[in-house]
Amino acid sequence: MKPVEKSQRLVANVNTGTFVPFLSDDGEEDGEVLQVNGGRNGYGFHIFRMAPGQTSIPHVHVGDEEFYIIEGDLTDHDGYEYVTGDIVCLRSGTEHCSTTKNGCLIAVYLRDTAGR
Questions:
Q1: Among 12, 24, 25, 67, which is least packed, fewest CB within 10 Å?
Q2: Pick the CATH number of 44-116 from 2.60.120.10, 2.60.120.280, 1.10.3720.10, 3.20.20.140
Q3: Which of 49, 43, 81 is nearest to 64 (CA)?
Q4: How far is the CA of 43 from the CAs of 34, 48, 101, in angstroms?
Q5: Of 62, 10, 11, 59, which is closest to residue 31 (Cα–Cα)?
Q6: Could you tell me if 19 and 49 are in contact, meaning their C-beta atoms sit under 8 angstroms apart?
Q7: How much is the pLDDT for 98?
Q8: Secondary structure (H, E, C), the chain
Q9: What pLDDT score does 110 carry?
């Protein structure tokens, strides 16, 4: 096997990478993301970060959203509390918003249904 070409390996580090604002479909800032896949901001596989006390913008998922709580706390609008180590799938059509008391870091996969 030959070595992986530089153009074929994309790497970002959660501790040293540059997080950029996640923009909702309406253009509002809603947390921050770190991703390397070159896709649309906040879609595909990415790391999502929320600051302490932040609440996400209410939204409806078009396509399943899967995430893993790396660290911190996250509570959905209905009072369901996610904790570090939880792996979650919110099915397509789910409407929610989430709040974090202490901040959180989440690994997310969200399929880009816009076809971009």
A1: 25
A2: 2.60.120.10
A3: 43
A4: 10, 10, 24
A5: 59
A6: yes
A7: 96
A8: CCCCCHHHCCCCCCCCCCCEEEECCCCCEEEEEECCCCCCCCCEEEEEEECCCCECCCEECCCCEEEEEEEEEEEECCCCEEECCCEEEECCCCEECEECCCCEEEEEEECCCCCC
A9: 85
pLDDT along the chain (116 residues), means of 10: 93 93 86 85 88 94 92 97 97 94 95 63
Structural tokens at position 69: 């709580």
Tokens of residue 83, six digits: 């904790």
